[in-house]
Structure formats: C-alpha cells, structure tokens
C-alpha cells in the first residue's frame, strides 16, 4: 500500500505586514521619507507633546525613603457618597470596617506608600479651602445622576488657586439611570464638563451602585490601584512650607489650672500628625498658623514613633536587626524576610475615628472599653466581668499603687534564703534635701504643675539657666568642700569613662567651665600628666554662649595653660563685676572686631616669616622654574617651610624617634604634590624606584576616591551652563541634574551627621510623626472641637509673620454675580491663612499713579491693596465674601481670584478729586475765581496748580486774594468767559484700612456659621436702611439752552466816531443785477407739458408705494405677534412639562433626604 | 508677632552685621549694653549715621534708641533700595557704610544706587578697591552679577571729599548654594596704588616696594598706578595700596593699607606685600575679610547644604561672634568638619540655608 502523505499545500499569498511594505513595488522602508508633509507633522507633534511634558524644574524636598502619607481628600456635595467611598477604600486596603469617620485615616497602601484619607465636610467652605491647600489627591465626588453642583465647582476653583493638586473625579449614583443610552450620554457629558474644569483627559471614575453599604469591590480595587501608583509633582507653596494635618488633638492643660481659674482659660494643647512639606525647624518658638484658629508659637515638638510605618520602613528595621544578630552570631532566630504585603502590614491609624479601640498617648494608653454595643450592658465593670480577660483588666484598674510604689518597700534578695537588701540610707547625704521633698508626696501624686524639660531653649531661658547653674555650683562648693578630694577620687573614673557621653549631652552646653576646670585639675593631679585633656569640638564650642569667643579659640587651639588662665579670669569676672568692667571697657578690643581689616602680625615678624615665600609656592599656579638644579632643594625647602608653618602641631605629635620616618613620608607626599599640582614633573624622582610609583598610584587612587566621595564641586565641569561640552543636551536636563546633585549632597551630608546634630540642622523631616504642643490655644478650640473638621497646621516663613500692605492683581471671578466694591470686607484665603480684610481696588494710570477704583472692572484684572500678613510675591489666592452658610444665597461663592505682586509697608493710592470754582471778575487773561477754596491757606497749597475751564482753556493758580477768604487769582492762556466753570483736577491720597480679621471658624460651636464683618449692603439690608443718595450724584438729563450769539451791531453814532483802524468794514450791497439774474430760463410749451406729466406720474407711484409699505408693516406686526404667541405657548408647555416631571421624579435633594433618613446612613443636610 | 518678641543681643560688637542680619531675617532685634561701661557710652556718630542709612534704604523699619544710646530696638521693614545720597560722618570712611549695603542690595525691591560722600580710605575700614576687588567678586560667586562701585572722587583722610557710587542692578531671589571644597590656586597678583594730592612718584615707589617682595612668589604681579589730580582728588593728600591675589575660579584674597603721616611708601608697600602672603597662608577659599559676607550669603541660601572650605586660622573671634549672631537671629547652626586630607588641617564650613527668598521684589 502506498503511503498516503498529506497533500502539499501551497503557501498562500498572504498580506503580511512585510508584504504590505512592498505593495508599491519597492520596500517603503528603504526610502526614508515617503510622505514629507506627514513626517514633518509627526515630528512637530512629537516635539509638541514632549515640550508639553516639561515643567519648571523644581526641587522635590520630600524625603525619598520615608515620605509622609499622601493626603487623599474626599470632597463633594452632601449625599454624593463620600463616607461610603472612604469606608469602601478602607475596607479594601486594610480589611477594617469603620463605623464613623472622624479626622484623617492613615492606612498603608503599598510597600512605600501610606494614604491619609480625609473627608471634607460637604457644606463648609472653610474646610474646603483648607483641604484645597493640603490635599495631594482629591477624589471629587459627583452625583452622576444629578450632575455638577455648586460645591464641586467652588472646590475646583479653590484648588486651582492653591496649586492644583491631582484630581480624580468619581461619579456615583449611576445605578439610578434606567436606560443605558441615557447613562452613556450623561457619562459623556459629565466627562467632558469635567475635562474643561480640570484638564482634557482627566480621569473620571464611575461607581455604579452600593452593595452592603459599600461600592462594588472591583471598582474600588481599580480605584485603589490607580491611587497607589499615582505620582505627584511638588507644588510650590507646599515645597516651601512645613505643614501638618492633625491626626489627633488633646488638651493637656493641667487640671490644677482649671481648678484655680475655671474652664475659661487658654489651653495647652498637643496636636499630633505627620509632617509634610519642608522640615519643621527644631528651634522652639517657631510660628505656625492653625487654620481657623490663629497664629501660635510652638512650645515644643517631639518626634514620636511612627504609628503606621510602611512595610519598607519595617523591613529596613528588620534588616538592621538581622545585621545586628548576625554580628552577634545568633543565626537561629532571624526574623523572616518579608516579600510582599501581608495582612499584618495593612495598618490603619485613625485615632479620632475609633478604630480598634486603642489609643496610645505619650504617657498613657487608652482602651475603649466599648459602649453597650450588643445590648448586654457596659463591659469591664468591676464585679460584672464576662470572662477571664475582663477580670484581668478590671483587677488592673483596681490597682491602688503604681508599679513604682509597689516596689517601695521591697528589698533585693540575692539568694533565695538570704536577707532582703534594702536601700542604704547613708548614701543620700548629698541629695537629702531633694529626697525629703519628694518622699512625703509619693502617695498623693503630683499636686503642682509639672515643669517639663523643654528640648532646646530660647536665649533668655538659657541665660537664666546659666545664672541658676552658677548659684547651684556655689552652694555645691560650699557643702562639698570638706570631702571634695575623696568625692572626686570616686567620681573620676566614672567621669573619665563617661567623658564621651558627657561631651555629647546637650546639658553640657550649659555647664559652667569652672566645673570643667575642677575636673580637669583633679584629673591632672591624679594621672600626673595631661593625657586626659579634652579634645574640644569646635562645632560645640562655638555655640556655648557662656564661653566668650576668645576663650573658645584658646580652648580649641589646645593651649592648656592658656585655657586654665583664661578660665580663671572668667571666674573672677563673674564674681567681681568691677574687674569685668575695667576689662570690657578697653574699647580697643571691641573696635578691633569692628575693623574690616583683619589682624596682622607686626612688620618684623611678617618679614621674618615670609622672608622666602617658598612655603606658599604650592598655592600658586604657573610658578616659573627657579632652575632645574634647584629642583631637589625646592621640594626640600617647601617641606621645611611647611614644618615652620605647622611647627607646633608636628612637635606635639612627633617624638624624636618617629620624626625620621614621618619626615620621609612627608617628603614623599610633598614631592607627589609637586608633580600633580605644579605643572612640572621631576623625572629623576620618578625613575627612583618602582616602589615609589606604585605608592604614588595608590595615593592617587585614594585621592581620587576621596574626591569622588566629597563630590565634585557643583560649579565643576559638568554643571557649567556656559560650557558647551557638558554632558547635558538641554538647559532643562542640566537644571534637573543640578538639583539631583544638590539633593544627593544634602543627603550625604545629613547622613554623615549624628542624629542629634541632624535634627538641629535639618529640623523635623517631612514624614515624621510628631507631637506639637502649644501653650495657649483659646479654650473654644477644645470646647467646640469637632473631629470631622480638619485641623491644619501650616508653618510660617519669617516674612509671613510680619504684617503690611499686600498689593495684588485681582479679578472678580466670572461666575460670581456681582462686582466687588472697594473697602467692602472680603475673606481672602492667602497662604495658610483665611482672613477678612478691606481691599482697595486700584488701577495704574499709565504707571504714574495708582488711582482708586470704586468697583472692580467687569472682566479685567485690577490691582488690589489690602492689609494683612505678608506673603511672598507670586502667591495665588482667592477671596470669598461670605463663609457663613446661613448667609449664602446659592450662588457661586468665590468672588475674586488673584496673585500677590508686591508686598510693602505702605502703598500710595490716590483718588481723583475735582475742585470747582467760578470766575467773578475777568481781566484780559487773568480772572478772579471764587468758591474753589474756603481759605487762603488752601489756596497757598495749590499755588501753581494747573486748572482748566470746561471749554478747555488751560490756566494756573497764581495767588490767594487777600480780601474774600478763599478767592484766588488765576491766569489763563486765553480770556475766559464769566459763564465758564473752572476745574482743578487733583489727587487725594487714600489710606488702606488696617483691618485684619482671621476667620476663626474652628472656635465656633457651629463651624459653618462664621460671620465676621458684614458687607455695607448687607448691613443696610439688615437694618432696613436705604442706600443714602446724594441728589447731586444722581444722573439727570442735562438740559442745555442753545446759546444764541447776536450779531455785532454798532450804532451809527458810535461808528462814526471810531478811528479808521477800528471802523467796521462792510461791503456795500450790490447795485447792478448779475449776469445770471439778467438771463431767466423760461420753459417752452412741449417741455413744460412733459415735465408736469412726469411729475404727476411720480406722485401717483409714490402714493401707491407708500400705501403698500404701510400695509406690509401692519402685516409684519401681525406676524410677529403670532410668532411671539407661539413661543410663549411653547415655553409655557415646557415649564409645565418640567414641573410635572420633577414633581413626579422628585429632585435629587429631597429624594436623597428621604432615602438617607430611611437607610440611616450619615449624610449632612 | 507680639511687639515684645525680639532677639536680644548684647554689646556693641558686630553692630552693622546684626542690623543687617535682622533686616534679612525680618526679626526685630534689641541690642543692649552698647558700650554701657564706657566713659562715652552708647552709639557712636557713625553708627547712628548707619542706622539713618538703613532707615532710608528700607520701608517701614523702626529704630528706637534709648535715652543713653546704650540700647537699640530695631524692627526691620522691607528693603526698598532706590537711589539715595548718604553723607558719611567724618569719623568713618565710606567703606564702613558700603560694606553692609552689599549684604542687602541684591534682595531689595528696587535697584540700589547710593552715592556716598566722605572719606574713601582708612586704616581700619574697607577701602574702595578692597570692596571693588575683594567683596564684589565674592558676591559674583553667589550670583550677584551686576554690581559695581564707581569712584567719582577720592577723598583721603582727614578731610575727605570723596564720592563713591554703589550700583547693584541684579535683584536675585536667593544666593546660589556654593560648594567650594578645594583651595584654589592663585594665578596672578594684581594691585592698585593710588594717590591724591601728592607727588605721583610716591605711587611708583609703592609699586616698586611691593614688587620687590612679590617677585619671589613667582607669579604675574601687576600693580596699577592710579594718580588722582584736580577736583576729583578730594581735600587732603594721601596715598594707599591694595593688593589682590586672583585665581581662575574667581575667588580673591586682598590686603590694603594707606600711608600715614611720615610713612615711607616703600616700607608700607613692602609690609603690605608680606601681609598679602600672610593672608594667603591664612585663608583657603575666601579671605578673612570676605568670610562674613560669604557666610551670610550661605545662610540666606536655598534650603540646601552649602560648603565652604576655611582654614583653621579663620576661626577667630569674629567668626565665632558672627556664627552666634546668626544662630540668635536665624536660629540655624553651622557645622565645622575637618577636611578629609592628610596634610591639611583646614575645615569645611557646612551651612544649611534658611530657604530665603527675596520677597521684596515686585513681580513683573
């Protein structure tokens, strides 16, 4: 049987991509440009797109490794599902169900990312403003079934003027649409409207329905993924200021204060939260603004352990632990290395929202014992415990003694059958007095205010402390003088060991040097030599206020004898003021410091020192070759000089034995330097040995490494803008690289510091969880505290603490109904602050003066000047007229937007002033003018001023007339008329009213009802007062009598006496009839007939036409009337239809309220 | 800010710089015990004159001087700049007033253009050349490019009669953060020898005297002779020399001196040349007189770390006093670290800027 093979199939002529290329008969790819026009377009478009991606390069100062949580604000009108969304997100990310949402909820959302989710109170404009300033990401909730609401638009506009955070729109209530087509259409409409507001292509999520009180899991998952990969650009304002969103607020006022002064006292308040933005200075007294409360100085800041660390951070900690354990050699109990987020790491921290029921404070842990949740009555009640666990807890609650106290009378038993060892009483001889004070109070607890140790001190405080220390020491010396030797002998070993600690402790800065000296002298006595001498750290010495600068230097330079002398001198100075006086009054010393010229040695010394300048040779380039012969000598010489320069130092270190080798090394080094730095090479040296070259190479490598570690100087080769050879193609890249380099340098420098030093220099970094304590916050803040309103702390820069006049470019918001009036109160949200102020709107008259405007122009920018806390130019802001909810009328509330252009202490604004006068006596070009001024003094002020008649004749004020008070003499360029009006146009300076009223909404019980200064119109309306109107200001129809000028008639009697020159020249009437008059044209018979006929015809046709026109007019009028009627009917019908529709389907609000009440969910009205 | 909330400083030391620091930081200061123990207590004429100048160049600043003049409360306003003419008192040369203006000028609202009238040289304070060749280059390194000091008339002490015009045209947001970690090599030495109302030969004698010393150094030495005659040479005879060591990076070291009565030009120039060598040996990147300017510009830089190499000799009383004042006013500390080199005991001065921006400037 024949084998049956598969039939061969011929390969089909397929139209693959490759084949397509050859359709034209040639390979299209082989010929570069097939369509040059399209290519050009493509290139243009690509570069367009690339160009659009560029932003002004800005340094991102958020720390790389442990950034603060991203603030996600959920914003939207009431009833759009904000709480539901937060609950769904929290559930999704942490598997926790929240019962109520109060304050920010911090959750871990990824390996390196945490989110602080925050709900914006729907109906509070103040909160909206605050949130717009701090939110990194805004989830803008939109009721998809209803469309955009005023709050949404307001929020978007607020956000825009505070740096525009990332915005994701979320349309909800989409399940209410019945038909798919309407849903699709309305989705599209929403999307496009959203795009015009945010940016084309902005992400809009659609959440369909609610299941089990949450949005569908899949949709939430998508959203959370979207959020967790989102990138953020640094915003200018936030990149310049530290800020904090309060997690938790506690009143830590001592109860004794309440007892003494009642509840109405300023409170000591601790505010907790993650730091954002730049680092918060660690110096106490930093000014911050608490939005809605006011400006305060920070009493103390403390970094707390992160309550919600990222897995990355935890891993780092684990790694450290592992390292440590490895070093110790214990390999068995290594913590497992985590690869991915497990449930344990999905942390949630929401102290105000009651999650998990445990609150941790600095000095206490609060456990929520639970409200009677399941109707079984309160738990954890002593005697009614429901289990072993509860019993344990209640027994703990019942403990009468603190742990410390319970050990009070217990001794230490070393052996099981031994005697208990108790405290040896004789050892407390020194601290007796202290203990005596302390012991009797042990049982009763503290009755007085705790005086906590503040980290860091203000100058005055520090000074006080120094004084106190002094006096303490005096006492100490008196008491302990008897057994001083033995005491020190005991202590010394400890001291010597703990020397390092002692040096680093901050306390040390304030210790008296006299103490030091005693230590030192005893140490010297005991050890016999000065090996214990401290090596002073200049960095610390500089800032020890109690050591004067010259002493600092002496100590640092290490002059031991000089030091003790100096110390003694200072002591004396402290004890006997008089001698100090004589010392300081030597003015020469002081003036020496004021001198610009630094101190130089005497001429002879200098000459001796610099007789040969060889020692400095290495500081010069292009030194001429002295001679080749002298080469060896030169290096030797320079070495010698160096020794001279640093002679004392080397003497100290090098003993005679080592000196030789050291010298040898030094010489090598010097020769190396000569080769590398000076541009001539020494061939003889190089040929010496192979060894030396190797050594040299090593040295060079080391040097290179050191250089690399130190980073090249920023102005080096790569970063020179003007250098065409740098490796960056564009300016943008160069700037980016520069910033990156600088950040790298910063990080490297900070990393090399001790943590204490770092905190001092850098402050509290963004991302750290801190507790900020304020000394005196108004009691209303605590009494009326409502956790659902965000509390925001914004750090203030030095300029922002000062007050002055801010000049800004301002425009009325185009959606705001009314124009704004000068000096009407306006609530501005500028910087961190919200405050009411009285702006004056001005315009610049061709840059010569700022003229006041009574109202803002309709559609243009004008300048506004107002009083308030200064804010650096280029800061954008917006203004609203009313923030109280009860006063709003439903319109768009943001009334003005603007940008600060200038800050100053004063501003010159003028108002136009026209003074009017009338002439009462006119000479040729001179006139006397009345009614313009009321006194000669006023006239004197305006002497030389330009005046003008209404008819445009210009003039000048000359002098006041002596007789009628206030009358003046003026000259004009021409003779004026008695009927003229004289106008003096002048400028009247306007002062900006110094009114600043911070919006203290958080102090109110009803936080949405902050009123402040009312608008003038509002006051009038409230009081029922009519707007006063000056009848002069009213516009009336001006009736001008046509001026009739009679011809000049000179009586004959007068005329005849006039001289010839003044004779009135008049032509005599013509006697002869003219040529034309003589020849009259008379129509002939035929022509006359024709003309009259034509006239008749025209008359007829005109009459006909007129009739036709009139008729048409009437018809037209009829038709218009008819059309109007139809239109009216249509509108009526439409109205009716709408009314019917809404009454049937119900508008959103009312239905929501019903639904809301029915479902029992939390929705604000 | 509460009215009583000011930084309290004591003593008459560093008076100008304290006022300058206060103005830059915007924090009010109270300087107490100004020569309170002196037989002639309180502020001196030139200090009051300086306060006047500050008042003129700022807007909204208030100065309260106590009855005895031993306490001054200074509340800074906004640096406005603009043009102004300042008549310096007889006791102090114009350099005393020009120097602090350099700290403020780049951060003002309007360009600085101040005409100073008075003595233009002295033994103790900054001379015109010292500012022009020594301080302005430092400013240039920090990004202040367009600043100039024009000498319209020279006026030697005691009678003076000089006129100097300070123009600072570049208004910058903040100084550039610098990293000067290497001691630059000196490429040349320049100088100006000037005289007013004396024989021009004195100038040549000075040049010769200086060159005699500096020729050993082995780099290009170029000293300009600048003889002033006629009306522009002030009211008194006088002569002086300024020596500047230059390098390619734009840093400078300088010394200056003027001839006193009976001084010999050659000797003075010779001594000054030695002083220049001394100054070079004692300074790393900037000279001792330039150090305060560089430090203040580092302090008011961006919120980045700037580094400057200094020598051990530069850590003197003035340095420490200034650092303390900076800490009081700005609340920041500097760090000194030894350089990572074996054969040098220079230090690296590390300062983190305060994140200063020139808020006075108007936006376009």
TrEMBL record, chain A:
Q: Known InterPro entries for this protein?
A: AAA+_ATPase (IPR003593), AARP2CN (IPR012948), ATPase_AAA_core (IPR003959), Bms1/Tsr1 (IPR039761), Bms1_N (IPR037875), BMS1_TSR1_C (IPR007034), G_Bms1/Tsr1_dom (IPR030387), P-loop_NTPase (IPR027417)
Instruction: State where composition is biased (Basic residues).
Output: 7-23
Q: Bias regions of kind Acidic residues — which residues? A: 425-435, 504-516, 562-573, 638-658, 665-688
Regions of biased composition (Polar residues) lie at: 1149-1165
Organism superkingdom: Eukaryota
Write out the catalysed reaction. Answer: GTP + H2O = GDP + phosphate + H(+)
Gene Ontology MF annotations: ATP binding; ATP hydrolysis activity; GTP binding; GTPase activity; U3 snoRNA binding
Asked if the Swiss-Prot or TrEMBL record annotates the protein with the keyword Nucleotide-binding, the reply is yes
Outline the extent of the Bms1-type G domain.
68-233
Q: Where is the composition biased (Basic and acidic residues)?
A: 689-698
Keywords in alphabetical order: ATP-binding, GTP-binding, Hydrolase, Nucleotide-binding, Nucleus, Phosphoprotein, Ribosome biogenesis
Annotated GO CC locations = 90S preribosome; nucleoplasm; small-subunit processome
The segment annotated Disordered runs over: 1-33, 370-389, 420-518, 559-598, 622-698, 1127-1165
- Intracellular or extracellular location(s): Nucleus, Nucleolus
- Main localisation: nucleus
Gene Ontology biological-process annotations: endonucleolytic cleavage of tricistronic rRNA transcript (SSU-rRNA, 5.8S rRNA, LSU-rRNA); maturation of SSU-rRNA from tricistronic rRNA transcript (SSU-rRNA, 5.8S rRNA, LSU-rRNA)
Family membership, please give it.
Belongs to the TRAFAC class translation factor GTPase superfamily. Bms1-like GTPase family. BMS1 subfamily.
Name assigned to this protein: LAMI_0G09912g1_1
Can you name the source organism? Lachancea mirantina
In the record, what lineage is assigned to the organism producing the protein? Answer: Eukaryota, Fungi, Dikarya, Ascomycota, Saccharomycotina
Automatic annotation (TrEMBL), chain B:
Keywords, alphabetical: Nucleus, Ribosome biogenesis
Q: Where in the cell is it found?
A: Nucleus, Nucleolus
RNA 3'-terminal phosphate cyclase domain sequence ranges: 10-333
* Gene3D superfamilies in the record: RNA 3'-terminal phosphate cyclase domain, RNA 3'-terminal phosphate cyclase, insert domain
Record family assignment? Belongs to the RNA 3'-terminal cyclase family. Type 2 subfamily.
Q: Which NCBIfam families match?
A: 18S_RNA_Rcl1p (TIGR03400)
Q: What is this protein called?
A: LAMI_0B07470g1_1
The organism named in the record is Lachancea mirantina
- Print the organism lineage: Eukaryota, Fungi, Dikarya, Ascomycota, Saccharomycotina
């Amino acid at each position: 049987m024949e084998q049956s093979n598969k039939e061969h199939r011929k390969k089909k002529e397929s139209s693959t991509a490759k084949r397509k290329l050859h359709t034209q008969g040639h390979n299209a790819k082989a010929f570069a440009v097939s369509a040059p026009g399209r290519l050009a377009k493509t290139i243009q478009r690509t570069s367009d797109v690339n160009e659009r991606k560029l932003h002004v390069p800005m340094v991102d100062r958020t720390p790389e490794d442990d950034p603060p949580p991203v603030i996600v604000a959920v914003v939207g009108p009431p009833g759009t599902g904000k709480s539901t969304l937060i609950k769904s997100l929290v559930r999704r990310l942490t598997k926790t169900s929240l019962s109520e949402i109060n304050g920010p909820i911090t959750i871990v959302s990824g390996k390196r990312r945490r989110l602080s989710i925050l709900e914006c109170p729907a109906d509070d404009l103040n909160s909206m403003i605050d949130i717009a300033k701090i939110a990194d990401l805004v989830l803008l909730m939109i009721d998809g079934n209803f469309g955009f609401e005023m709050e949404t638009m307001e929020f978007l506009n607020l956000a825009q003027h505070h740096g525009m955070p990332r915005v994701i729109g979320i349309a909800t209530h989409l399940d209410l649409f019945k038909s798919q087509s309407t849903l699709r259409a309305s989705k599209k409409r929403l999307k496009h409207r959203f795009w015009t507001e945010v940016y084309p292509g902005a992400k809009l999520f659609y959440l369909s329905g609610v299941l089990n009180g949450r949005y569908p899991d899949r949709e939430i998952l998508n959203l959370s993924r979207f959020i967790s990969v989102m990138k953020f650009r640094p915003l200018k304002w936030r990149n310049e200021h530290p800020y904090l969103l309060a997690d938790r607020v506690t009143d830590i006022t001592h109860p004794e204060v309440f007892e003494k002064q009642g509840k109405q006292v300023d409170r000591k308040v601790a505010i907790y939260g993650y730091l954002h933005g730049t680092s918060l200075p660690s110096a106490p007294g930093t000014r911050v603004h608490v939005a809605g409360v006011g400006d305060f100085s920070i009493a103390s800041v403390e970094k707390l352990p992160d309550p919600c660390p990222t897995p990355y951070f935890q891993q780092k900690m684990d790694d450290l632990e592992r390292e440590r354990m490895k070093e110790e050699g214990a390999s068995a109990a290594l913590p497992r290395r985590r690869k991915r987020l497990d449930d344990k790491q999905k942390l949630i921290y929401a102290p105000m929202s009651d999650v998990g029921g445990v609150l941790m404070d600095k000095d206490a842990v609060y456990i929520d014992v639970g409200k009677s949740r399941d109707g079984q009555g309160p738990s954890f009640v002593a005697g009614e415990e429901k289990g072993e666990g509860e019993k344990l807890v209640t027994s703990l609650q019942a403990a009468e003694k603190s742990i410390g106290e319970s050990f009070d009378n217990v001794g230490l038993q070393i052996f099981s059958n031994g005697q208990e060892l108790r405290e040896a009483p004789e050892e407390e001889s020194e601290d007796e007095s202290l203990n005596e004070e302390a012991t009797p109070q042990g049982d009763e607890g503290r009755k007085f205010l705790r005086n906590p140790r503040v980290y860091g001190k203000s100058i005055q405080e520090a000074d006080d402390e120094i004084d106190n220390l002094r006096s303490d020491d005096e006492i100490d010396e008196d008491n302990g003088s008897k057994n001083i030797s033995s005491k020190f002998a005991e202590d010394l070993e400890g001291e010597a060991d703990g020397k390092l600690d002692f040096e680093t402790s901050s306390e040390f800065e304030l210790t008296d040097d006299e103490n030091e000296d005693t230590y030192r002298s005893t140490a010297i006595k005991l050890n016999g030599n000065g090996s214990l001498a401290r090596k002073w750290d200049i960095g610390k010495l500089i800032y020890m206020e109690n050591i004067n600068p010259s002493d600092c230097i002496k100590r640092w330079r290490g002059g031991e004898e000089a030091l003790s002398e100096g110390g003694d001198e200072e002591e004396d100075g402290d004890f006997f003021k008089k001698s100090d006086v004589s010392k300081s009054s030597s003015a020469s010393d002081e003036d020496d410091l004021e001198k610009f010229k630094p101190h130089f040695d005497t001429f002879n010394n200098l000459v001796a020192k610099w007789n040969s300048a060889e020692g400095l040779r290495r500081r010069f380039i292009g030194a001429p070759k002295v001679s080749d012969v002298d080469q060896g000598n030169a290096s030797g010489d320079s070495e010698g000089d160096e020794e001279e320069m640093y002679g004392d130092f080397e003497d100290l270190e090098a003993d005679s034995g080592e000196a030789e080798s050291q010298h040898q090394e030094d010489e090598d080094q010097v020769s190396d330097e000569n080769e590398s730095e000076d541009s001539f090479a020494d061939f003889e040296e190089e040929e010496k040995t192979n060894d030396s070259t190797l050594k040299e190479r090593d040295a060079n490598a080391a040097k290179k490494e050191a250089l690399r570690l130190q980073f090249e100087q920023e102005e080096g080769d790569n970063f020179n803008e003007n250098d065409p050879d740098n490796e960056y193609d564009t300016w943008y890249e160069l700037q980016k690289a520069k910033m990156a380099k600088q950040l790298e340098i910063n990080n490297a420098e900070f990393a090399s510091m001790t943590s204490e030093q770092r905190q001092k220099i850098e402050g509290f970094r963004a991302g750290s969880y801190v507790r900020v304590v304020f000394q005196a916050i108004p009691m209303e803040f605590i009494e009326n505290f409502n956790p659902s309103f965000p509390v925001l702390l914004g750090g203030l820069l030095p300029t922002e603490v000062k007050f002055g006049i801010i000049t800004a470019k301002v425009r009325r918001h185009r959606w705001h109904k009314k124009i704004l009036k000068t000096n009407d109160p306006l609530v501005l949200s500028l910087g961190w602050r919200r405050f009411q102020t009285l702006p004056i709107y001005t315009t610049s008259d061709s840059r010569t003066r700022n003229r006041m405007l009574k109202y803002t122009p309709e559609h243009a920018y004008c300048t506004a000047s107002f009083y308030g806390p200064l804010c650096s130019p280029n800061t954008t802001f917006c203004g609203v007229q009313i923030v109280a909810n009860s006063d709003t009328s439903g319109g768009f509330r943001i009334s003005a937007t603007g940008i600060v252009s200038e800050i100053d202490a004063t501003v010159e604004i003028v108002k136009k002033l026209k003074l009017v006068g009338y002439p009462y006596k006119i000479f040729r070009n001179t006139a006397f003018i009345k009614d313009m001024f009321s006194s000669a003094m006023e006239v004197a002020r305006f002497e030389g001023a330009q005046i003008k008649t209404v008819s445009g004749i210009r003039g000048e004020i000359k002098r006041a007339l002596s007789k009628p008070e206030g009358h003046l003499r003026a000259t004009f360029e021409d003779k004026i008329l008695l009927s003229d009006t004289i106008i003096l146009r002048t400028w009247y300076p306007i002062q900006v009213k110094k009114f600043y009223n911070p919006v203290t909404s958080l102090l109110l019980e009803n936080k949405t009802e902050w009123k402040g200064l009312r608008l003038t119109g509002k006051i009038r309306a409230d009081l029922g007062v009519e707007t006063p109107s000056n009848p002069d200001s009213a516009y009336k129809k001006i009736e001008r009598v046509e001026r009739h000028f009679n011809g000049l008639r000179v009586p004959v009697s007068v005329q005849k006496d006039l001289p010839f020159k003044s004779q009135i020249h008049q032509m005599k009437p013509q006697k002869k009839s003219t040529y034309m008059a003589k020849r009259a044209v008379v129509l002939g018979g035929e022509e006359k007939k024709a003309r009259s006929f034509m006239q008749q015809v025209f008359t007829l046709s005109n009459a006909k036409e007129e009739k036709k026109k009139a008729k048409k007019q009437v018809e037209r009028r009829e038709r218009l009337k008819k059309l109007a009627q139809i239109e009216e009917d249509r509108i009526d019908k439409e109205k009716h239809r709408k009314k019917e529709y809404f009454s049937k389907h119900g508008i959103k609000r009312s239905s929501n309220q019903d639904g809301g009440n029915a479902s029992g969910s939390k929705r604000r009205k | 800010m509460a009215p009583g909330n000011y930084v309290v400083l004591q003593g008459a030391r560093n008076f100008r710089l304290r006022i300058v620091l206060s103005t830059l930081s915007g924090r009010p200061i109270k300087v107490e015990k100004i020569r309170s123990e002196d037989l002639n207590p309180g502020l001196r004429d030139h200090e009051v004159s300086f306060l006047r100048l500050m008042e003129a160049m700022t807007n909204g600043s208030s100065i309260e001087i106590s009855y005895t003049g031993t306490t001054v409360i200074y509340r800074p306003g906004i640096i406005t700049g603009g043009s102004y003419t300042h008549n310096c008192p007889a006791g102090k040369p114009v350099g005393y007033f020009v120097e602090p203006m350099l700290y403020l000028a780049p951060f003002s609202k309007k360009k600085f253009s101040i005409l100073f009238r008075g003595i233009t040289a002295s033994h103790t304070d900054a001379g015109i050349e010292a500012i022009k060749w020594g301080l302005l280059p430092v400013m240039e390194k920090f990004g202040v490019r367009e600043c100039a000091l024009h000498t319209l008339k020279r006026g030697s002490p005691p009678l003076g009669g000089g006129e100097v015009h300070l123009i600072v045209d570049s208004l910058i947001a903040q100084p550039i953060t610098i990293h000067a970690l290497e001691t630059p090599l000196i490429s040349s030495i320049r100088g100006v020898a000037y005289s007013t109302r004396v024989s021009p030969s004195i100038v040549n004698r000075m040049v010769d005297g200086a060159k005699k010393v500096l020729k050993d150094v082995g780099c290009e030495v170029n000293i300009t002779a600048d003889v002033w005659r006629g009306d522009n040479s002030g009211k008194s005879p006088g002569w002086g020399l300024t020596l500047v060591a230059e390098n390619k990076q734009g840093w400078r070291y300088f010394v200056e001196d003027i001839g006193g009565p009976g001084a010999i030009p050659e000797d003075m120039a010779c001594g000054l040349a030695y002083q220049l060598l001394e100054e070079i040996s004692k300074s790393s990147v900037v000279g001792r007189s330039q150090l305060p300017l560089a430090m203040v510009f580092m302090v008011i830089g961006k919120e980045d770390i700037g580094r400057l190499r200094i020598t051990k000799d530069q850590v003197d009383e003035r340095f420490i006093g200034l650092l303390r004042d900076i800490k009081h006013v700005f609340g920041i500390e500097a760090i000194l670290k030894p350089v990572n080199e074996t054969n040098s005991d220079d230090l690296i001065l590390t300062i983190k800027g305060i994140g200063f921006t020139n808020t006075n400037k108007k936006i376009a």
